[in-house]
Specification:
The complex is a heterotrimer of chains A (189), B (162) and C (214). Chain A has 189 residues and is α+β, with helices and mostly antiparallel strands. Chain A contains 8 helices and 3 strands, in the order H-H-H-H-H-H-H-E-E-E-H. Chain C has 214 residues and is mostly helical. Chain C has a single domain (28-213), classed as Rna Polymerase Sigma Factor, Chain: A (Orthogonal Bundle), CATH 1.10.1740.10. The chains are: A alpha+beta (189), B alpha+beta (162), C mainly alpha (214). At the A-B interface, helix 7, strand 1, strand 2 and strand 3 of A face strand 4, strand 5, strand 6 and strand 7 of B. Strand 3 (148-154) of chain A pairs parallel with strand 7 of chain B.
Amino acid sequence: MNNPDESTIQNWLKGELEGNELKQMEAWAEENAAELEAKMGWDALGDEISQALPSEQEPPYADFFNERVKHHAVELVETSPATKAAPLWKRFNWILTPAAMAGMAFCFYLGTRIDQDVATSEQSAAVLEEVYTPASGVHSEVLHSGGITVIVLDGLDEIPDTLDIASGETGHGLSPRMMVKTERENLYF
Amino acid sequence: MIIRLFCVLTLLFSCIVSAADLGKEVIGRMQVQVYFATNGEASVAGQALKKPDPEIEKKLKNLRETSYKHYRVLGMDRQPVFRSYENWLTPLKPSEELLLSFEPRGNAQSGKMMLDLELWQSRKKIMKAGPTLEKGKPLYIFGPKWRGGRLLLAIELVELLQ
Amino acid sequence: MNISRQITSNFLMGAVASESTGNGGDGPTDQMLVQRAQSGDYRAFDQLVTRHRGKVYAMIVNMIHNDADAWDLAQDAFVKAWKALPKFEHRAQFSTWLFRISHNVVYDWMRKKKVRSEGELDDQLLDSSRIDSAARTAPKIPTRPDEQLVQNERREEIEKALSQLSDEHRETILLREVQGMEYTEIADIMECSKGTVMSRLFYARKKLQTLLKS
């Protein structure tokens, strides 16, 4: 392709070129990137962006960063997850929502009628001085009933269905168990 | 002079070592059981999972917040309580999706122990509490939802050595 | 070898080394460290981590605007690199290969966070109102406080504009304009053709120009 005209360039930028025309335009752009940049008046903004954003930034606790990499790469003994059963839950996915809704409505009804004699003679199992939920959107409710203490945490992120926690799968991230408490507090509230 | 200095240093070192040992003394044992509670199909959590004992299942069904129909035992962990050190429970190991850290606050009194308890989900702290636990009487926590059900934790002081 | 030849030889060796170490010519090259690491020498890999962690961390922070998660993801990238090291064939530079791993780590994370967008929509994670400008690093060149304020404001505008691009467009801009990578390297990292890199790059540039003018 010789010098493409302005409308071709604009169409290319909008993603409206196809087939041979697209290939030719991409090849031309590759060969004439500097010319295209000059046409767009890009240089000044390009320089601004490269000045504004760091190309390199030492991670916090840099020495500890290296130690954590070593720990996970070399020191941790990894156990392979148990052989997974076929994802049976997927076949029953369609009934989960209506079943859960019907079940919860029924539970609520039963909850207003449930007999609390189960453990009336017991004293409260746990006295709670405070319950604190640091994550925004999460709140807690403490219930004492029949000698049993229950904390209900609402607003938590759901564990992804695809994460097979029963077989030992776990998400990304540095384990808080591996950190000294003070350093953990700095990173996680 | 040198001998006196040596004696003082030895005494000081002994004190330090003794103090460190005291902190690691085991004063109890904590346990957490994680159950999958659902009104849908329980096998979605995993086909090989067991139901809890009937007595426990009855207790779970009578918890105020729930009347879930079905329960499965997802995992369990039991760990010592150190006098002055934090410890961790990893009930779903090797998964660390749920973790509990605990540390005693002071000495146990009248068969009860006060603890600093932190619950972690996906490596983030989701709850911090200061329960006073009594042996054999669990604290229950309704946690995150998963696969159409909910995770339920039963945290228990199973042994108190003081 | 006489002294003058020794000096010349050292000068030339230093010059050659500096092109491929990226560390000013001191110490072994990336290739040497990788070869040692591939034979099981973790200390060699640790040197690679120290050498490249700044770039990897900066790239991930610029992509996801979350320092704590970027810290985790940067480590994940290095752990994956260590495990995949036996498969590294030295056809590309180690840094390019490492960036490709980082690219995959970030995209896997984004997928799991369910914030991936196909078009130019503001995705939840990079909603510009959630970008904490206080989390940014200092500018590269030390400046007076008044100049610093202007620079900070401009940086915020640039970050806000970048957040309005799709993940692929934003990454292309960051790899080209911030990391200074060549088109072939970017294509290698993002596992796409050079033509796609070009179209993404120029589209993103045009979009940024529009956003930053308004």
